[in-house]
Amino acid sequence: MIASSGCMNTVNFADSTDTVHDMHISTWDYYMPHNPIGHFVNGHTYTQATIITNEGTVQEDSVYAVYKADGQLFEPTFVPGCYFSGAPYLYSTDTFPSLLPGSSAQFLINYTVPTNIAMNVPIVFKDTVVFKGPIGNLIFDPTPWNNVNSFSTTTTNSFNPNFKEVNPKGSGPAGTISYTDSVLEYMVHFQNNGTWQAENVTVIDTLDDNLDWTSLRPVYMSWPCKVALTQAGSKRIAKFMFNNINLPPKASDEVRSNAMFTYTIHLKPGLAAGSQVRNKASIYFDYTEPVVTNTTLNTIGTASHVSVNNVPEVTANSFTVYPNPANNSFSAIINSAVNTTATLKITDVTGRTMLTKDINVQKGTQNVSVDINNLPSGTYFVTYDSKGAVQTQKLVVIKS
After folding, report:
1. CB neighbours of 232 closer than 8 A, spacing ≥ 6?
2. Domains of the chain: which residue ranges?
3. pLDDT tens digits, one per residue of 108-125
4. Per residue in 147-200, pLDDT tens?
5. Domain 318-397 - what CATH class?
6. CB 303 within 8 A of CB 256
7. Top-tier CATH class for 160-311
8. Quick one: fold of 13-158?
9. What are phi and psi of 288, to 5 degrees?
């Protein structure tokens, strides 16, 4: 046994001696009995689960969230206190329930899928959360990259309710993600399809060698569980134990027969382009043979591949920074409409200039590497100044 931790729906890793506002948001496909044959099926109801977690150290009473649904869908239904306005149906709320440190809130959003959407059409959703409105307050969050989420799904047909998802999914059959992505978030769904309640459910997740197993962090559990990390030879295994869950069978309680959990985990640093990360889980209902989920796949792309998960969109005349947090270097991804000159400046939270770099910018998108080996761990601001057009991104530096 390497490590073990107990968790009941929530996990809090922050230092309770500090006042930290730290929010986390993610969106997932969700199995519901009104759609027993699939996730996103023409003419049926499609359900999403959006999970918001307070990973800070203080109770949050003014959480504010906005959500941009894909305009290809009909208007969704949502929880009381939220409102929608026009296609593509942006929702926002300032009546969010209070969240204690380490606690989560899950919201289920239903859509009626139009009958005229073709198979394998991508449907994209984007959402953002802050500890207090307006949305610009995410700059005061120590991990702003997990305050923003982009989720994509596609139309499908047949469906097994015991399945696994990864976020970011990546693009194409290989699930290509940016070479600068550093964190994957997984969700495992399971359902008791037997004829009697499952007293105990155990999920065994053998982690890919390209994952840093020491960085695994449970985020959300729909039922109380314990998590343990073990090593068997060269294999690293995460075990999620739902003891005394008494999960009812589908035949007697369709809704409560379902359960799920999510966790985040870091990729190992320095993975080469083309490296692949595969993940599947084995689900044990009491003493029955395991149910094995599908296998998720991510492939590390090249510098030209930029992930859309948990990062701002790169549009004309804009820039963003990767990876974030960074260690000894980061890249500024700059998209310029013209050839120009610019300056990158790094300042600390007191406004002190720590580094400046003059650059020649070409029309289009480019990757500018910046050495920050001499910067200590902390929070900084990276300013891109192109002839008076100024943009700023927050950067967190963590030295190992």
Report:
1. none
2. 13-158, 160-311, 318-397
3. 888 877 766 665 667 778
4. 888 777 776 544 557 888 888 888 777 888 876 667 889 989 898 888 889 999
5. mainly beta
6. no
7. mainly beta
8. Immunoglobulin-like (2.60.40)
9. -80, 165
